[in-house]
From TrEMBL:
Designated name of the protein: Cell filamentation protein Fic
Database matches in InterPro entries: Fic/DOC_N (IPR025758), Fido (IPR003812), Fido-like_dom_sf (IPR036597), Fido_containing (IPR040198), SoFic-like (IPR026287)
PROSITE patterns named in the record: FIDO
Binding site for ATP: 62, 196, 200-207, 238-239
Active site: 196
Domain Fido: from-to ranges: 110-260
Keywords, ordered alphabetically: ATP-binding, Nucleotide-binding
Molecular function in Gene Ontology: ATP binding
Keyword Ligase: no
PANTHER family: FIDO DOMAIN-CONTAINING PROTEIN, FIDO DOMAIN-CONTAINING PROTEIN DDB_G0283145
Length: 367
């Protein structure tokens, strides 16, 4: 199989008449979600479960097996076998890259150098760290079953000598004004995946670009819109619609799939955000009543930001004394806000869990 020669951007064969309904529905759904986001006082804290879910699911598409709960447990001091630890580190790297990228875009725009920085963070101390983190590939890669040869590949990205010009064209397209920003985001993501410019981590970087580019195009007021839940559930359709571009030069099936994904995920995010916001207000009120503490709001924010933790986390986050932190945890346990998932013994401290938030984060409220 020979390396693919990518089409020039912008694509010339998009049939807007075939996707006009998808365009309208996706824009309307995303606007409703963004309107809700703008009413969230501190989305970085309140919606951190959704950020963690995105990191877990985007990494799961690439083969990791860790859950949201295991990531938080690990951060609270729980240990796992080496394979699980590596999975968790990949997820934490993705979350770190997403957080830093969001901060970066408040003052600048997406460029190739920025993409390389994200990749370096993503591949730090995990599988693939030997595959030139932060550097675009200079050798041929291909996509197919693990261990397959290039002749057996399902897709062979552009040859290394063609990659530099294709990436420059892709970067220039970021500043182009397509007829619709959501359609343009679909093209940006797909072309990045087709170019497959890194030796590893292309899928995760490509999915991370979706909320970042929507934010850059002002389709979102904050880059907190994640598609990996939908893409993970519809993985075969995701890859098949992407492949239609390289196999037939037809962008329309992919763009239609992408727009439907935005519509579905925006509605799902609205439901989840409302549940989290409602739980936050209810929890804050209860904590004020049962603790009578001047730190009630900070305490509520802390357990929403990290719903599995040791008492030291509260001591550092709230700046309170050790006895005060233990007393707060005891009161929250007595009122069924917190549960103990590991009792303290010897040098091992207790690990507490805010299970109501975990249920929402893991989608159990939707079952």
């Amino acid at each position: 199989m020979t390396p693919y020669t990518p089409e020039h951007l912008p694509p010339q064969n998009i049939k807007y008449e075939d996707i006009i309904s998808d365009v309208g529905q996706a824009n309307a759904a995303l606007a409703r979600y963004d309107g809700l986001l703008q009413g969230v006082i501190n989305p970085g804290i309140l919606l951190s479960p959704m950020t963690n879910e995105e990191a877990v699911l985007s990494s799961r598409i690439e083969g990791t097996q860790a859950t949201i709960e295991e990531v938080w447990e690990h951060e609270a001091g729980q240990t796992y076998d080496l394979g699980k630890e590596t999975d968790i580190q990949e997820i934490k790297n993705y979350r770190k890259a997403l957080t830093l990228a969001s901060e970066h875009l408040s003052s600048t725009s997406i460029r190739l150098g920025f993409i390389r920085q994200l990749h370096e963070i993503l591949m730090d101390s995990v599988r693939g760290q030997d595959k030139h983190p932060g550097h675009f590939r200079t050798t041929q890669n291909w996509i197919g079953p693990k261990g397959c040869q290039m002749e057996e590949a399902s897709f062979v990205p552009p040859a290394p000598h063609a990659l530099e010009n294709a990436l420059i064209e892709w970067e220039n397209y970021l500043s182009f004004n397509e007829k619709d920003p959501l359609v343009q985001t679909a093209i940006v993501h797909a072309q990045f995946e087709i170019l497959h410019p890194f030796h590893d981590g292309n899928g995760r970087i490509g999915r991370l670009l979706i909320p970042l580019y929507l934010y850059q195009k002002k389709a979102l007021s904050t880059p907190m819109f994640y598609l990996s839940a939908y893409l993970e559930k519809n993985r075969e359709s995701y890859y098949a619609s992407l492949k239609s571009i390289s196999s037939s030069g037809n962008w329309t099936p992919w763009i239609s799939f992408f727009l439907k994904a935005i519509t579905f995920q925006a509605k799902s995010n609205i439901d989840k955000t409302k549940l989290i916001m409602s739980l936050y207000e209810e929890t804050k009120k209860t904590i004020v009543e049962i603790t009578k503490s001047p730190n009630s709001t900070l305490l509520t924010d802390a357990i929403f930001n990290r719903p599995i933790f040791q008492v030291n986390y509260l001591i550092q986050k709230l700046g309170i004394a050790v006895p005060t932190a233990h007393q707060l945890c005891r009161k929250l346990k007595e009122n069924n806000i917190l549960k103990t998932i590991r009792e303290g013994a010897g040098r091992k401290a207790s690990i507490y869990c805010f299970s109501d938030l975990l249920n929402i984060a893991e989608g159990k409220e939707f079952m």
